[in-house]
Amino acid sequence: GKDYHIIVKMDAQMTKKSNQSRLYVPEPPFRPGDTPDYSHISVPANHSPPRPDPLCDDHETVEHATSLIRVLRFNGDAVGDWAPSLTADQKRKGLRDMMLTRAMDDRMFNMQRQGKMSFYMKSRGEEAVSVAHAMALRKDDMTFPTYRQQGILINRGAPIKEMMCQCLSNAGDRLQGKSIPVLYSFRDFGFFSVSGNLGTQMIQAVGWGMAEAYKDSDGIASAFTGEGATAEGDFHYALNFASTYRAPVILNVVNNQWAISSFQGIAAGEGETFAARGSGFGLATLRVDGNDFLAVYAATEWAAERARKGGGATLIEHFTYRKEGHSTSDDPTKYRPENEPEVWPFGDPIDRLKTHLIQSNEWDEERHAAQEEECKVEIRQIYKEAEKMGTLSSATNVNDFTMFEQVYEKLPGHLQAQIEAFKEEL
């Protein structure tokens, strides 16, 4: 018996060693305590691949899936044929929307830490992806966002107070406390209810786009997911349907390098680019510098024109970086170096657009500092009004009986009995 157990143990060790030699498990290049070095990520010398006609054949964009579309140089110059025709006022509007988004994120993060709300997710470093994308679409185009596209709502003029009330789950929450914070729902602003499970809304957006085409409308849909969720079946279903039916939809992959604490290599990010997955389905594909406001706008504008004119769907990979934790429940210092966000080679989207405006003599440091303070004051004042309607640490002021509403078309008998029981207790 003893010899048998020794042999079994040795066999197990040999099997483990053998498996280790055959099985590859991706590991992030840097861990806490390491000095991050992004020299392996090359900033394209030629800046961008050429801008093709929006109705080109999909195979003409294969190069665009493996290179990187950029407009802004780090000195502020806007170069290349992807540079969009935006006025200085439009650029300043985009800058302010990004700054307002960041100010709101900071305020709500601090309120969560004070126990006034349960949860929050910041979009620091990714503001251009949402704001520039929204600016390039029509306001009646339906977006299917994730939980880091609050910039779409801010750009489209959604009431920030209502966004805050949803996060506070108070009496002003249009969802009546039925959803966790940041999963907004604003159909009147073309913002489909956010799903906490990424990937699910990609195929829904394709269906929405197909319905628009069926109605002979030139409306389009735009969906977002993270790079991690490209490993899920929903993503591939969406690409298949979008390609087969040439659906008027934009499929956005926000590659911010991290899916919670798993780096993008776990979703096969060490192989070909995420944008290249669209090429295999016969889709037009673009890979864009997600920290370049003008490049995101230009790529979205191109894809929207293609969709509206019957050219079909486009897959866009936004190459960016998540500067802070996945959420207030996450501590990124546990799995990546603390200074990694500061050495990301593509900088910060707000700083880069600010530099461009200053270089163009359309902005200056004094006005920028003043606007930053204005955004903070505006957000603080709006929050004070939202807080009056309730918080988690005081009383949410949500009518408890709303938990039974807008869930079932016909309320089941056992829930009706619970309502009656509650009423008797009160």
Rg result: 24 Å
Q: State the low-pLDDT regions, or none.
A: 1-10
What is the molecular shape? globular
Largest sheet: 5 strands, parallel
Order of SSEs: HHHHEHHHEHEEEHEHEHHHH
In percent, how much strand structure appears in the residues? 5-15%
Mean pLDDT: 92
- Number-wise, the strands total 7
Largest beta sheet: strand ordering: 1-2-3-7-6
- Helicity level: 40-55%
Number of helices: 14
Distance between the termini: 69 Å
Global structural class: alpha/beta
Summarize the structure in short.
The protein has 14 helices and seven strands.
Q: How would you describe the overall organization of this protein?
A:
This protein is an alpha/beta fold. Helices cover 41% and strands 8% of the residues. It contains 14 helices and seven strands. It has helices spanning 2-22, 62-66, 88-113, 127-136, 150-155, 160-168, 200-214, 233-245, 276-279, 293-308, 340-343, 349-359, 365-387, 413-425, and strands spanning 142-144, 221-226, 249-255, 258-259, 262-263, 284-289, 314-319. Strands 1-2-3-7-6 form a five-stranded parallel β-sheet, with helices on both faces. Strands 4-5 form a two-stranded antiparallel ribbon. A hairpin with a 2-residue loop joins strand 4 (258-259) and strand 5 (262-263). Helix 4 packs parallel to helix 10 (293-308) and helix 7 (200-214) runs parallel beside helix 8. The longest helix has 26 residues, at 88-113. Mean pLDDT is 92; it is low at 1-10.
